[in-house]
Amino acid sequence: MILAEIFPEGSDIDSLKKVKFGIDPTFPQLHLGHLVPLRIVKQLQEQGREVTIVLGTFTAQMGDPSGKDQTRPILSKEDVEKNAEQILDQVKTILHPGFKVFRNGDLFNTMNVPELMKIVSDFSVQSMINRNAFSKRIENNVPIGVHELIVPILQGTDSVELNSEIEVGGTDQLFNFQVARRLQELNGQKPEVCIMAPIINGTDGQKMSKSIGNCIFLEEMPLDMFGKCMSVSDETMNEWIPLLTDGNKESHPMKRKKKMAMDIVEQLCGPEIVPKVVKHFEKTVQNKELPDDIKEIKAGDLLDVITQIRNCSKTEARRLIKSGAVKINDVKIDEDEVLSSGQIMKVGKRDFGKIV
Q1: pLDDT tens digits for 77-124?
Q2: How far is CA 219 from the centre of its chain?
Q3: Of 14, 24, 40, whose CA–CA distance to 165 is shortest?
Q4: According to a count of CB atoms within 10 Å of the terminal CB, is the N or C end of the chain lower?
């Protein structure tokens, strides 16, 4: 089993078959932090267990408060459904075919108010605000929406509906898991065993977070994915290897990191792309040479050119210029630079464009 905590401690999962893994579709992209539990789910799948992916198409509209220090905005049903479809496409690239999909909007959108009141009446306000995130917000006088107290109960109801025997998630889901287990007991079911995957740090050594911008997304371009993996500290590398790969016996730090980056790219992009990515990285980053296939960009507005090379926003393009990350013919430029045909623009360490 991939490194993870089993809750309750000492639980025997050998005979359990039904596996639940919930994903919160408040954002359309998954990152390496999601890959950790997905690898566990894949391993359980390979052991012959029945996997159901739960897409929180109802609960995501309210915002899962797990680990959050402020209320998240309520999303539209259309946005959440669109996000869920994109997420499902990403999950399909990791798991084997044959898993089931459950959208909890299908359950809760048809539930009437008395049915909902019956479910939530089994829990007190005191028990719900005991979770760490809520306690911290109370201490800091940060508001807690009433709808946020209900989200863990609805997510636990998913487990009742599926009669799940194993649930996989991050360690930040412990409170939700406890609620699910209690709901199952109240409904005459045996409470699920929970496998809690560690929350990994991002490229800057802080907790991986979309808001911080230190993620590596599962749908990133292979060159960017490989380069970002190579940019992490040795400490972060040693944290990632047992969680995101099947192991690494390389002793030299650079070789060890390169092997890790290759393994991650292979999992997400396929083995055929790895040699091309490694060759490009060695040529452009390690040997500081120009790549063989430089994208040609028509001369025009500087910011537009950078956004095409980097696939970023104009705001990000301005930030890159100010930080000295944009060079023409290996010389740093400012926003007053006038482009001309034949120039080679380098954005960051890995992205190039030829002005035509």
Answers
A1: 899 999 999 999 999 999 999 999 999 999 999 999 999 999 999 998
A2: 10
A3: 14
A4: N
Kindly give the pairing relationship between strand 5-7 and strand 193-197: antiparallel
Beta bridge partners of 169: 196
Query: For the chain, where do the domains classified as CATH 3.10.290.10 start and end?
Result: 295-355
Helices 146-162 and 113-120, packing angle to 10 deg: 90
Q: Is the separation of the CB atoms in 232 and 225 below 8 Å? A: no
Name 344's bridge partners: 354
Q: Is 339 helix (H, G, I), strand (E, B) or coil?
A: coil
| Residue 236 in tokens | 């972060």
The alpha helices in 16-167, defined as continuous H runs, are: 32-46, 59-62, 77-92, 105-108, 113-120, 125-128, 132-139, 146-162
Distance of alpha carbon 181 from alpha carbon 63, whole angstroms: 21
Measured from the Cβ of residue 167, the count of other Cβ atoms closer than 10 Å reads 29
Tokens standing for 47? 């052991």
Taking phi over 0 as left and psi of -120 to 50 as alpha, with beta for the rest, 218 belongs to alpha
Beta bridge partners of 207: 201
Task: Give pLDDT tens digits for 221-251.
Answer: 999 899 999 999 999 999 999 999 998 989 9
CATH 3.40.50.620 location in the chain = 5-197
The CATH architecture annotation of domain 295-355 reads: Roll (3.10)
Angle (nearest 5°) at CA 187 between 181 and 189: 60
In this structure, which topology does domain 5-197 adopt according to CATH? Rossmann fold (3.40.50)
CA 260 – CA 278 distance, rounded (Å): 12
